[in-house]
Design a protein that fits this description.
By secondary structure, the chain is of the alpha/beta class. It contains 13 helices and 13 strands. The strands form five sheets. The chain has a five-stranded parallel beta sheet with strand order 3-6-9-1-10.
Amino acid sequence: MELSQSSTSIDPEYVAKVTNSILSEASKIIVGKEHVLRFIVIALYAGGHVLLEGVPGVAKTLIAKTIARTFNMTYSRIQATPDLLPSDIIGTFVYDPKTGDFKPRKGPIFANIVLFDEINRASPRTQSALLEAMQERQVTIEGVTFKLPEPFMVIATQNPIEMEGTFPLPEAQIDRFLLKLLVKHPSHDEGKEILKRIHSIERFEVKPVASATDILAIRSMLPSVKVSEEVLEYIVNIVDETHRHPLVRLGGSPRAAIALYLCSKANALINGRDFVIPDDVKYVAHPVLRHRILLKPEAELEGITSDKIIDEVLNRVHVPTPGVEV
């Protein structure tokens, strides 16, 4: 199930078929997290990174591992700790006594999909090294620059409780994540299904159904997905409205509008279309915007979340009639 990377034709039906295969395979292990899995695939198609937030035991790590296994690509896992050093992530040069030269020993960042577990337990220096790699798609080891493999995606996890001894990501760094996904507790029925599948989950029987070539080919289709002038206006109006809300201290940046634009295109392709409609924008709005909106103290005291603000913003902004013209 592969497309040539050099292919420039747009084939939404193919994208939908590949995506369904990925989600179907991942769902053999992951119970009740269909939207989380779909959003990770959207981020991969759009060339971005994902932050998973949830309390311990809700399968954040398992979700990342399972998605990675559905691709015939390299995968690595990094466990964040306060004493983790940048060199533990990107690598270093080591002396080779046979040749008398120093040779690069590449770190676990050199993989297509990198799981960075509990990112807020790493020191700010180590977080910065990771986020630089995410942004630049390259690392510098002792003055020598190395390109990271393509596609390259970081799936980071963090625990919203037990914040003692952690280093919360600054706003400028958390903005580097294309999507922030909330992983919630399973429902009663989902809990029972997890117990029924526990032995198959332990065996982790997931087979690759897509390759790096597939992902790069799908990414090459994004520029050809059509977005009407009205939908472009809709995207910008949503971001602008986040600045006008009385309980918002800082609204979405231009990067937020770009993220809405790219993720909407990816979602359109997954749905078998070569054009974006307003429903695509609304579908991706929460994971795109929730980590890019800073609330005023009074909002937090009242228990108002960024997701509630996004709901209000979407209700306020006029929804255009779907169009397909560029």
